[in-house]
From TrEMBL:
Belongs to the short-chain dehydrogenases/reductases (SDR) family. It comes from the Bacteria. One of its GO terms (molecular function) is oxidoreductase activity. InterPro entries: NAD(P)-bd_dom_sf (IPR036291), Sc_DH/Rdtase_CS (IPR020904), SDR_fam (IPR002347). PROSITE patterns: ADH_SHORT. This is Short-chain dehydrodenase. The keyword Transcription regulation does not apply. Pfam families: adh_short. Keywords: Oxidoreductase. The keyword Oxidoreductase applies.
Length: 252
């Protein structure tokens, strides 16, 4: 994708990967608009990055998505890049009766969120040169982590949805990029100090290099191997990976 001169909307942006991407694109001379629910976290990011702007968004609320899209189109008519980054990750118990609130919140945020946000902006983006839609999935969409089964399933679904969008939008000049991060040190699942995860700055640097290279799937090491796993023998690695998780430090 073009690395400068874009107008970029990022869901999330007050923390973690969204904040890292927002700052990296801001430094390259793009107009970046971040969003989220926690006003103070958005403000901290704005204070550190003069010229960046923020809007409030609750991606689980269809009215909030519509209001955000209306504001974006009215106030930032050059908007040409949407980064669907907001997500939540919770431990669940796929071997027990489901916690309906947890399942609903995870699916509404991680899957319906990007579907609805893209839908609200799609006709606008079709009219823009150099338009890009970025969906942040996860390596866990390819090798599920059993203790976060709903989360892993939403990321597999987002991968599938991205493939459909890429096919359908190929004649409209919109590039569909999927970022499937490996484990990265962020607040997600309380992983800021997690030794098994890669540092956030290392992940952002690798991601920006791959954005520049123009690939459709951004896979920062060690994501490539997990991405390559699905196939008729995928259970060997699913079992090995989940044994490693089960035998490691407890979460939470
Ligand atoms: N860290 C990893 O290891 C990893 C690996 C693979 C994929 N990912 C994906 O990367 C993305 C970013 O996660 P992260 O690691 O950077 O974690 P994070 O720091 O917790 O960031 C998640 C962001 O999503 C926003 N968000 C959550 N619910 C929202 C809602 N209802 N409405 C609007 N915004 C909402 C949060 O902002 P507010 O709370 O202020 O709303 C927050 O800024 C997620 O999609 C995650 O699944 C992360």
């Amino acid at each position: 994708m073009r690395m400068t001169g874009n107008t970029i909307f990022i869901t999330g942006g007050g923390s973690g990967i969204g904040q890292g991407l927002a700052e990296a694109f801001h430094k390259l001379g793009n107009q970046v608009i971040i969003s989220g629910r926690r006003k103070e976290r958005l403000q901290q990011t704005l204070d550190a990055n003069p010229g960046m702007v923020a809007i409030e968004l609750d991606i689980t609320d269809p009215d909030s998505i519509q209001a955000a899209a209306k504001t974006l189109i009215a106030d930032y008519p050059d908007l040409n890049v949407l980064i669907n980054n907001a997500g939540v990750m919770m431990l669940d118990h796929a071997d027990k009766p489901v916690d309906d609130a947890l399942a609903l919140s995870t699916v509404t945020t991680n899957l319906l969120g990007p579907i609805r946000m893209t839908s609200a902006l799609i006709e606008h983006l079709k009219a823009k040169p150099d338009a890009v839609i970025v969906n942040v999935s996860s390596v866990l969409g390819f090798v599920p982590m059993a203790v976060t089964a709903v989360y892993s399933a939403t990321k597999a679904a987002l991968h599938s949805y991205t493939l459909s969008q890429r096919y359908l939008l190929r004649g409209h000049g919109i590039q569909l990029v999927e970022i499937a991060p490996p484990w990265v040190r962020t607040e997600l699942l309380d992983s800021s100090e997690e030794e098994r995860a890669i540092p956030l700055d290392q992940f952002i640097a690798g991601t920006m290099e791959q954005f520049e290279s123009g690939v459709d799937e951004i896979l920062v090491s060690p994501a490539e191997a997990m991405r390559a796993n699905p196939g008729p023998n995928e259970h060997a690695w699913v079992n090995q990976f989940n044994d490693m998780i089960a035998n490691g430090p407890a979460f939470g």
